[in-house]
Amino acid sequence: MKELRGAGVALITPFTEDGHVDVEALKKVVAFNIEGHIDYLVVLGTTAESVTLSKAEKQLVMSTVEEANAGILPLVIGVGGNNTMALVAELQSVDLSAYDAILSVSPYYNRPTQEGIYQHFAALAQVSPLPIIVYNVPGRTGSNMLPETVVRLAKKFENIVAVKEACGDMTQVQELISKRPAGFLVLSGDDITALPTIVAGGDGVISVIGQGLPEEFSKMVHEGLEGNTELAYSYHYKMQEGMKLIFEEGNPAGIKVVFEYLGIAKPFVRLPLITASDSLKHRIVSFMESMIRIPA
Question: What DSSP string describes 91-134?
Fold first, then answer.
């Protein structure tokens, strides 16, 4: 498995005005992040609006990112859902040879018990051809995968190698870090808690804003990992307003405004999401205009 510590980003899926996947814009997003020294790319995560992509569109996104990346950065693929048997079948049939790990969200809507969550991931671990990053995001799934469940999975299955933790509770994050087995990675799933997680002993982040500010964000993460806390927090505070703004009207509406400002992609999203309001666009643009390069 390639290194998954550091700054990963959950890529957007750019769309044209008529609603098609914007292949050229997606290539530019990938190139921008490679140039900005991001450590790895996450394809078809929540930020990619994967739930509103057809099977053919998902394949198009995968092939586009694979081509644009050209083996430069590790790739993580989102394979998650609330139908365990369907996911098992998908893992057994889809060609994932271009990828280094799987990101799999805890089952949503069904609201399983902790034992149900454990058995779900146990079933995936037994068939997965790749290492698995389990993803806890209670605000979206309706259930919280507790530290004891994550640690139980990590100890039982060698191919469950990390957790993307987006519970928003640093006490829970600290418990995970203190109880995890050796070598198991704790990754922040929230931009605003990325650096606090690293300072507490975590291993990095899978970010949204990082893809729009890759150079600044990757510097923050790496300075934090190297123990240069004061310098890392100087980057954090520069980006803090933007971390909040891009989620104000849902994800990825906000980060797509960032890419529109950068001239890389248009701000279009798919229903039931809608594009950011003019008020939010104005504030995000003001934030981007205020950003200055921080000396290394």
Answer: HHHS--TT-SEEEEEPP-SS---HHHHHHHHHHHHTT-SS-EEE
Domain 6-223 CATH (choose: 3.50.20.20, 3.20.20.70, 3.40.50.720, 3.40.50.2000): 3.20.20.70
> Which tokens go with 20?
């098609």
Q: Which of these, 282, 290, 240, 237, lies nearest to 257 by C-alpha position?
A: 282
118-152 tens-digit pLDDT: 999 999 999 999 999 999 999 999 999 999 999 99
The residue type at 193: T
Of 248, 263, 270, the closest CA to residue 54 belongs to 270
Report whether 246 contacts 258 (CB < 8 A): yes
Q: Which residues are catalytic?
A: 135, 164
**In the chain, where the domains are located:** 6-223
Kindly report the pTM of this predicted structure. 0.95
